[in-house]
Amino acid sequence: MNWDDTRIFLAVARTGQLLGAARALGLNHATVARRLSALETDLGVKLVDRRTTGSLLTSAGESFLEIAERVEAEMQAARARIGGADVALSGTVRIGAPDGFGVDFLAPRLGALTERHPDLTLQLVPVSRAVSLSRREADIAITVERPEHGRLVARKLVDYTLGLYASRAYLARSGAPADAQDLRRHALVGYVEDLVYSTALAYAGEIDRGFTPRFEIASALGQVEAVRAGAGIGILHAFIARRDPDLVPVLPDKVIRRSYWLVLHESVRDIARVRVAADFIAEEVERARSMFV
């Protein structure tokens, strides 16, 4: 069995398309199709169901994917050990994170890691949906729930809180609510409910079941900006909002508690550049733990 054929299979599995795999590998479509067929012939089984809308793994393909990823991880780990630190810490690490944590916390800090390792390229992808680590949409994912399924390795980073905030200008104009039910007479800023990808992010009901925003924004940072501009009262990440003197806590006894988790696919956890990036993130969070509490 040819490893190059297996590498092509991995690209097809992760992109879900022969054309996407060809682009990712710098090959033409015909070569990818031919090499995939050669692998299926060698194994004597169909791995991929090729459709006009994309490529889906068969049950045999799903089983082979697990084996191929283990082999890939072993080869990458061996290359890192034999090649030394310079080789191990070159290449690209993609990090998927919710926009509040990714943009507000990670973006100002990750530059220090690239300064430490000049051959390392970091890609920070603030996302408004769950990323697939098995399809290599990211090497590292920051999530708000510990994953329960898949070949994933997770470690808890930190607990954080959310609360109600309004701008000074809004409160001067509209007054402060007396209690949670009184929020219903106020302009509210919130998330777009049908775009929430995790039940942990559907938290408005913990404040008040009647919490109905008139301004919905599918971005945590967008909600901060709208509240800062006086659009209404919103549920904001406390570690972001409390640094702004123009944002005032409203009903401070109403607190929502969540956690951030750092998640890796087990096939990449021993790759040096991924491990170093993950450790760096965990260290930075630990150093700044007091801002989340």
CATH topology name of the largest domain, in short, is D-Maltodextrin-Binding Protein, domain 2
The overall number of domains is 3
Largest sheet: 8 strands, mixed
* Beta fraction: 15-25%
Number of strands: 10
Shape: elongated
Describe this protein with a few key phrases.
41% helix, D-Maltodextrin-Binding Protein, domain 2, 8-stranded mixed sheet, two-stranded antiparallel ribbon, Arc Repressor Mutant, subunit A
What does this structure look like?
The protein has 293 residues and is α/β, with parallel strands linked by helices. The protein has three domains: 3-83, Orthogonal Bundle (Arc Repressor Mutant, subunit A), CATH 1.10.10; 85-158 and 260-292, 3-Layer(aba) Sandwich (D-Maltodextrin-Binding Protein, domain 2), CATH 3.40.190.10; 159-257, 3-Layer(aba) Sandwich (D-Maltodextrin-Binding Protein, domain 2), CATH 3.40.190.10. It is built from twelve helices and ten strands. It has helices spanning 3-15, 18-25, 29-43, 59-83, 85-88, 99-106, 111-116, 168-174, 220-228, 238-241, 272-287, 289-292, and strands spanning 48-51, 54-57, 91-98, 120-127, 140-143, 152-167, 188-190, 215-216, 233-237, 247-265. The strands form two sheets. The chain has an eight-stranded mixed β-sheet. Strands 1-2 form a two-stranded antiparallel ribbon. The longest helix has 25 residues, at 59-83. The model has no long low-confidence stretch (mean pLDDT 89).
